[in-house]
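Review form for a predicted model. The reviewer records the input and the model, then writes brief findings.
Reviewer: anonymous (R2)
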Amino acid sequence: MKKIIVILLILLTSMLFLVSYEKTKNHEKINDQKVEAFFEQVQKENINITIDEETYIGVLEIPKLNLKRGFYAYESEENTVEKNIELISKNCYPNENCPFILASHSGSSSIAFFKNLDQLTIEDKAVIHYLNESYEYKLTQIIHEPKTGTISILDTNKPQLILTTCNKKINTMQDIYIFIKI
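Model under review:
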C-alpha cells in the first residue's frame, strides 16, 4: 500500500512539474510572437505602433540575461505584475526626461520575468525599444530596501530606467536596479 501511495505521489508531482513547465513555455512562446509582431509593426510603420490592449508598446532587452520581454501600455488590463512586466508610471516614458519604471516577479514561477536580475553588475546594459526608437541604458546602482509598496528614486529629473523586483532571499526586501540613459 505504501508503495502505491509513493508511486502516485511521484506521478502527481511529475504531472504538476510538467504542467508548470508547459505553462512557462507557452508564456515564452506568446511573448516571442508578440515581441516579433512589435518589431515588425515598428519597421513597417516607422512612426508609432498601434496601441491596444493586446499589443506591446515596448520591449525590455537585457543582453547579458538573454531577456527580451514586452510590456503593455499603462492603461492595459495586461499591464500587471501578475501577468507580465508591469509599467509602473503612466506619466513617464523612455522618450522623456524622467525615470521609466518596470516591475516583475523574481521567483521561480512562469511569471518571474526578473528572476535573473541578481546576476547583473554595475555597467551592464539594457535597452528599451519603445514605439519606433531604442534607448540604451547602463546600470549604475543596485539598491536593496524594505518592501513598502514604494521605491526610492533619488533623482526624478533624469532619463533613467528603473527595474524593481522582490529580493530572492529576504521576503520583506526589494531590489531596485537603476540604469542611466547613455
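Findings: The chain has a mean pLDDT of 84.
Further findings: The beta strands are 58-62, 67-71, 86-87, 99-103, 125-130, 133-146, 160-166, 173-181.
Recommendation: see findings above.
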